[in-house]
Structures are given as C-alpha cells and as structure tokens.
Amino acid sequence: MRRFRRLAAIAAMLPLALAGCGGGAAENTEGTEVTYWLWDSNQLPAYQACADAFHAANPTITVKISQFGWADYWTSLTTNMVSGTAPDVFTNHLNYYPEFAGKNQILPLDDLVSTDGVKTDAYAPGLADLWVSAEGKRYGLPKDFDTVGIFYNKKMLADAGISEDEMKSLSWNPTDGGSYEKVIARLTVDKSGKRGDEAGFDKSNVKVYGLGLDENNGAGVGQQMWSMYALSTGWEYTDKNPWGTRFQYDDQRFQQMVGWFRGLIDKGYMPSLAISRSGTSVNDAFGAGRYALSTNGSWMINTYYGYQGVEVGTAPTPIGPSGKRATIYNGLADSIYAGTKHKDQAWQWVRYLASADCQKAVGEKAVVFPAIPEALTIAEQKFAAKGVDISAFTVQIHENTTSLYPITDHASDISAIMSPAMDAVLSFKADPSSLSKANDEVNALFR
Amino acid sequence: MTAMTTRARLQAATATARRRQVGDPPRRRRTGDLPVAMAFLLPAAVGFAVFYLWPTLRTIYLSFTDYSLLTPPEWVGVENYRRVLHDELFWNALTVTVEYVVVNIAVQTVVALGMAVLMHRLTRSTMIRGILLLPYLVANVVVALIWYTMLDAQLGIVNQALTWVGVDPVAFFGETATATPTIALVNVWRHMGYTALLIFAGLQAIPASVYEAAATDGASEFTMFRKITLPLLRPALALVLVLTIIGSFQIFDAVAVTTKGGPINSTRVIYYYIYEQAFQRFNFGYAAAICVALFAILASLALMQLKLLRAGDSDLD
Amino acid sequence: MSQALSGRAAGTRSRRRRLSWQRMAAWAILVTLILITLLPFYWMLRISLSSNRNLSAHAGSLVPPEFTLGAFRRVLGIATLEEATAEGGSGAQINFWRYLVNSVLTSTVITVCQVFFSAMAAYAFARLRWPGREKVFFVFLTALMVPPIFTALPNFVTVKQLGLLNTYAGIVLPYLFMTPFAVFFLRQFFLNISREVEEAAIMDGAGHARRFFRVIVPMSSAPIATISLLVYIGAWNEYFWPLLVGQEDSVRVLTVALGIFRSQTPQAGPDWAGLMAATLLAALPVIALFTIFGRWIVNSIQFSGIK
C-alpha cells in the first residue's frame, strides 16, 4: 500500500512538474515579439534575413518565424484562430483570405496604409488589387507573384529536330491543337522509337510523352494544367474578376478546350489521369525523362532546373485563338491577424515585408519573383547567374496577357465540386458537357 | 493414461484451462466493490471526462448548429442531419470506407493470425517479433508516401519489377477501381505485425500443457490450430477485431497524402470527407453531424461485435 | 506458476525436434512475410542515401545512384544551407538532439502514466464487482470512436485555458490518464487471470492495492509489456497534437520537426532523401530502447510477482 501511495503521489505531481519545466520558454522582457508564419521552407532563409535586418532597424521588435508544411499550415492556423492564439502576421493565400476577411479574422489595412502613405502602385501592375475585398478593403500587401510557362527537355527537342526558337512562337487552337500539338506529337516516342506523328505509332506503349499531366487535381482553376489554354480562347472563369458571382464552366469555349485537352490522352501524347496520379509528381517524371514538355508555375523553376542529367529550357505558353498568350497571374501577401496584441508592431513588420529592402533580400535568393519591380530585376540577375532565363515567365506581364487568379467566395466549396467533375471528364467517365451541371452546382453557392 | 483418446485428453486439458480463465469473483453485496472501483477508476475517469467526453458532447451540440469555426455557432435543430441523409457524397464516403474496411480487416486479420500462430509454434525469437513490428514504427503518413512512390506506374520500383517479369505496369493509386484496395493493403503492411503481436499476446495466455497433450497424441498442427488455438483465442481475437475495425474506419492520413479522395470520389473515405467539410470548407456544424452519425454506426457495430463474439469468456465446446 | 513456466519450456523443446515438411512450409511462409516486411525498408535506405537531384533519373536503380550521406546530415542539422539546397533539401534548421530528448521525455511520461492509470481502470473493470460496470465500460469504449480531428480542437482550447501551450505538460496531458485502447486491452487480459491466485492473496489479508500490485500486474507481465511498447510507439509517432501544442523550439518533438521534410513547399513535393533518412533515424531510438529494455521490462515484472 505504501508503494501504491508513493506511486500515486509521483503520478499526480508529474504534470505539475512538467508544467514547471516547460514554462521556461524565453519571455522577452524588453520590447515586443511579433510572431510570423510561412509555409515555404525554401524561403525561410530569405525571410529570416529580412527579420534580422528588421530587428536591427527596430531593436524593440523581435520577429519570431515559424514554418509549417502546406497541409498543416491551414489546419494549424484555423485551430489557433479559434482559440485566439494565431500568429500576429502570416503569409496568406487567395483561396483563403476571402473566408478570413469575411469572418473578421484578419485586419483591413486601409487606415494604416493611408496614415503611413504606403504606395500600393509600387508593385507589379495588378498585384495589389488581388488583396482588396469585395467591400473595397485591403487585407494584404503583395510580396511576390507567379505565372505559368512551359519547361522543356532540350535534348529531346534536339532529337526531334525542333528548335528552341520554334518553342517561343507556338500557337494553339481547340480544333486541331495548332503547331503546339504538332510539337507535342513529334516529341512523343513509343517503345519501338516511332514518334507520335509517324505512321505506326503505338499509343498504348509510350516511352516518352510529349506533354506531362500534373498530378495535382486542378479542380476548377487548373492553374498550371489547362488555364493557359482556356484563357487564351478569350474565356474567363467568372462574369467579373475579382469577386465574380457566376462561373462559366458551361461556356462552349471552355468545354471545347477540355475536349481537346483530354484528346491528348486518347492520342497517347499525354499520360492518362490514372498514370499521372499513381505516385510521382509531374516534375519528377519530367526529371526522369518521361515527359518532353511540362507546363508549370514559376515557383517550380528551381525544382525543374535541379534535376541531374536533364538540360532544361523554358518557353512561354502558346498563343491561342484570341491571338494572345495567356497565364494566370497570382501572388501572395502577408496579413495581420485580427486578434493580435501588437497591432502597431505587426503592421511595421508587414510594411517591411512589402518594402523594397526586404523584397530585394528575397530576390537575392532567386527562389520566387518579388512583387516590387526593382527587386524582380535583382532576382532576374540571380536566376540568370544560375543559368536560368525567366523571361518566358515575365514576357506575359510586359505583353499584358496575364489574367488574375479567379478570386471569389466559396473557393473551397467550388473546388470540392469541380475536382471530381474534372476527374470524371479527364478519365473519360463523363463528357465535357457534364461540366455544365457542375457549373450549376457552383453557381448555386452564390444564391 | 495412455488409453485416453486424443479427444478426451484434449477436452480434459482445455476444460482445466477454461476453469483457470474464468475470472469473475463470487457475488457480494449489491454495491460490491464500488468505493474501491471508484478509487481505481479516478485517474482514467478524469482523463476520459476532460479529453474524450467533453469534446464528444461539444461535437454533439455543434451538430445541431451552423458553425463555421470562425464565427459563433447558430442553432439550426436537425437541419444538418436532414442534409446528411440526402448527401450523396456522405453515402459514397460510407460505401468507400466500408470497402476499405472489409479489404483491410479481412486480409490483415488472416495474415496477422497466421503470423502470430507461426511465431507461436515455430520460434520464440524476439528478433523476429521485432522485425515484424518494424513497419508500425514508421508513421502512417510516411508509410503511405513510400508505397506511393514504390507503386508509381512510371517510376515505381514495384512496377519496374513487374515489367522485368513481363507484366504491364499498373497505376495502383491512380485507377478508381484499384485505389481503395491499394490503400487498404498498404495499411495491412503497416499493421500486420502489430496485429500479430496483439494476437500473440492472446496466444501466450493459452497454457502450453494443452498443446503438449495434443502433441503427445499425435494431433497435427492443423488439428491443434482448429481444435485448440482458434477456440481458446476467441476472446483475444474479439478484442483485436473490435480494435482494428474501429481503427480501420478512421483511415485518413494515407488518403490525405496520396490520392486526396480522388480519382473522382473513389477514395473519399468518411474521415477525409469530414476533414474537408470541417477544416477546408468550414462547415464545422455539418461535419459534426456526420461525425455523430458515424459515431452511432461504430458504437452499434462494436456492441454487436462484443455480443456476437461474447468477448467476455472463452469456450471450447 | 513455476510449474506452468517449466512445462512450457519443455513443450518448446519437444516441438522443436519434429521437423516435418509442414514445419518447413510454415518457415517458408514466415520468411516470406519477413521479406515483405523488410523490402520497403531497404528502399527507404536506398533513397535516404541518394541525392534528390538524381533520384528521378535513376528510379529503377537498386542501389543509390550516387552515394551520399547528405540527407542524414540534413536531418541531424549539420548540413550547411548551401549543402542542403545543392541536394534538393530546404533551408530549415534542425536541432535534432534537442527534439530527440523532447520526444523521449514526452513518450516515456505518456507510456508510464497511461499504462499505469489504464491498468488501474482495467482492474476495476475486470476484477471488481460493482453495479453498472459493463455500462460504464462500454461508455469508455465508445471514446475509441471519437475521431481525433474532433477532439483536437476542444482539447487545444482546454490546454490553452490551463495555460499549458508550448509546455511538455500540454503535449502529454491528453494521453496521460487513459486511452480506451489501453483500458480495453488490459481488461481483456485481467479477465483471464485465475481467481484462485487472487484468492490466495485475499487469504493473506491483502487489500485491493496489494492484490493489484502483487498479483494482477505481475501475472499480466506479457500484456503489460506489449501495451507499453504499443503506447510508446504511438506516443513517439504522434504528430498533429504536438504540432498544435508544441510549436516552441524548446518543446518541439522529433516528428513535428521532421515534418519539414514531408512538405517543404505546397507543390514541389517532399525532400525524399531527407524524409526517408528522418524516418529511419526517428525509428532507431525506439528500436534501441526496446532491444535494451524489452526483456528487462518483461523479466522485472515477472520476478517481482513470483516472490
């Protein structure tokens, strides 16, 4: 019995003892600590450098950065918002910010912006508009941007007798695919060495697919999968952007494009949905020499150029029936949590993140494209020093052929409807016309 | 002694075993050992109340509300439950989950039982037991990811090996027909050693004398398995089945890091659907209602199992 | 008791002598199962010793295409930023030993407390008679069916209100008192213990505490060792809860810290080599622990009981 009592006593004390020793986390007595979250570990060093520089300039404020993987980031953030312990400042995404703004979880920055005279036209054109809500309130200052382009395997191009210049002037249409599809067909090689445009090509035994299919479910946006084709027909996602309330997946141009796109699978030029989803990312399969071309976002540049044994080049997306190229133009921004206890300090940090000083530091690392043009120039040089020409991704900004990422309410509900709908079409279990029904479901959300 | 038939010896030996295993104390006063029982239960009860009961009650409450997580809940009565009944995706998720559970449990139980009996009858090596438990040491997310790459249609080593022996590659995770069974089998890999260990603990409780008696009379291994192991193992097996089936219903991580519910809705298992509703679509109240519905299904399932398998006692008749 | 033990030993010996084709076949099956268990581990090792940069190009190679310990260096936090990025890793800082200590500490506390308290509860459910016993037990059991994603949020709020965010106590608290699994498991084995043994203790005038410690616990040494092992592994692999509660570097556990290798960026995919190296390294302490202490746990409980 004595032993039992002793054990029980120890057991009862354990939590208390643990509470004691865990509570020793450094409490900053001097100055304020601003907490900041981001999800991209590749950018962590750049932002840590920013935080250090910021602290040097503002000795009373210390920035504490935490990084979470993309999947954990949002669940963790939401849980902390519910209990009022969310970080003072966090990297925000267009899919999430309308929800957070609508539920008053993030602070409108308008007063702060006007008081301090921050110029929102300092950023690449259009970027700052992404972060203004339907009510006209600003919830973030842009930090970077991305566009979509084509990555190609230089050796495969040479083997097929296609020049790199040719790649820069490809055109596309939904009927026969234009010169773009011709290139894709030519780059496709079956097991016996026959090319996709040659007689006797065996589409059920393909060794190299001309075009890779992304393993991510593009849902209703298809950012790096099909958006550049759809948008180049003149089609738009919604009646207006941002803050559209009627989606247009029932449009003929859109459904025609989807029909052409999945036709590539049927012809053996692109892997089936099943293959693309069976375990390897589109970029890894590209790196393994299974795909000759791969459309992807500018945020993937370092990944594509990192594969050993593959020489990579980039080209802008093809010119469509509208006579212009197209790409989604998207970006991130930093938002302030509405429950922050250090609003002023948080704002100073956000302002610094959006400043030329910090963005130049980010540009130095050549990981993403900073939102401020002069910082972008630095990034451009740094990328070039690594042997990467990013003009395929920036040309559309100069030619003004970009389209803003579709910003609407109900983003995750729309994705939940469109993901299975697009899967069904791309796996030939439903016709492109079935997307009209999905479109009705999507539009019903706005009623 | 030698004149006894195998059957008679078996019966005698197992009857002794059975007598040894009946653990209920003689009846006492109406309240019995209540005060002592409360003392023994106290720590567990505190933990149960704070970390299980309270969240459950809260979930039940929220299932009657419209709650987006970030704004206060609003009472909507049984509206969420009405929606559940008419939600095709809920029924789809339930079907997919049941498909998963059936494949997962059937294969896993057979393999684990075989494994446990083999270990029990062949070797006492803790090393082999340790090896078979290794997959369980790896987090389920990583288990899913490693199989995901190994089974890839173009680059996976399994498909490479298939090609070497002349079989065409299979997109295990990518086809709607194979995705769910594939995830189920991947989880069998992680849990077979663990389940075998649970069954093994039950096997150890069977007195060795029973096997000796049978062995002396020349009973084959198979007869011993059928006449001794299976009947005497029933309580342990019941326990393992209840635990693994309930665990199996909670399949989530493997889906979240591989197929994410696709292709189409073929792997959108119930927990993944709940997670999407709660944390991605912010329909927390609705997700709570699905949770409660699932909870009811699982609880009745467990009750049925316990009754059917009479987990409380063992027998040999 | 000692008779049963020696009898078992004798039985093992007599069985071992008979090597029939049946036993050969049985061994063949067991060896196959062991191979199926081990092959993916070889693949993990093979990936962990490669550089991410050439993994894809040599997907079918059975050995690392270009042997490197870079992934292990990243996991241990001794790789420089340049080194890490050169092999396709990330710029995250890893304080491996600190997280290892945190993991060992929290897992040990969870295992000791949870098994102990669960055994107490199991004793009440299996060896004591009181009204409503089965009903209360079933209610306990239903806790198994509450999905963790629904307990996480209220429990997070509870722990926050107790002021235990970013403390060891906050990380271990929900697992400290019981899990339905451990209670259910132990109850099932306590039920099987012969009444006669306990009655002898009652004759000696032993109270419930003495019977629990001197009879029931020692006689259930094997199941207790088993459940301790399983609880420890479970605690060791716990990810989402410590991610929510233990964000501070000082209390961060290994699984959370190594989660970085799983998703560096939203679309670019994991640092495969780093992830596999992290997985193998994180499993090592548990393996070592149970190689060293596994037998000791079983033996110590057995001996203290027989005396």
**How many β-strand stretches of chain C?**
0
Helix count of chain C equals: 16
Beta-strand segment tally of chain A: 12
Question: Main beta sheet of chain A, described?
Answer: 7 strands, mixed
The stretches of 5 or more residues of chain C where confidence is low (pLDDT under 50) are 1-16, 301-307
- C-alpha geometry of chain C: globular
* Highest-level CATH class of the largest domain in chain A: Alpha Beta
Beta content of chain A comes to: 5-15%
- Helicity level of chain C: over 70%
Explain what the structure shows:
The complex is a heterotrimer of chains A (447), B (317) and C (307). With 447 residues, chain A is an alpha/beta fold. Chain A is built from 19 helices and 12 strands. In chain A, the strands form 2 sheets. In chain A, strands 1, 2, 3, 4, 10, 11 and 12 form a 7-stranded mixed β-sheet that branches. Chain A is globular and about 75 Å long. The model of chain A is unreliable at 1-29 (pLDDT under 50). Residues 1-10, 12-29 and 312-317 of chain B have low confidence and may be disordered. Chain B has 317 residues and is mainly α. Chain C is mainly α and 307 residues long. Helix content of chain C is 72%, strand content 0%. Chain C is built from 16 helices and no strands. Chain C has helices spanning 2-17, 21-48, 52-55, 70-75, 81-86, 96-126, 133-142, 148-161, 168-176, 180-191, 195-203, 208-219, 221-237, 240-245, 254-258, 272-306. The longest helix of chain C is centred in the last third of the chain and has 35 residues, at 272-306. Chains in contact: A-B, A-C, B-C. At the B-C interface, α1, α2, α4, α5 and α6 of B face α1, α2, α6, α7 and α8 of C.
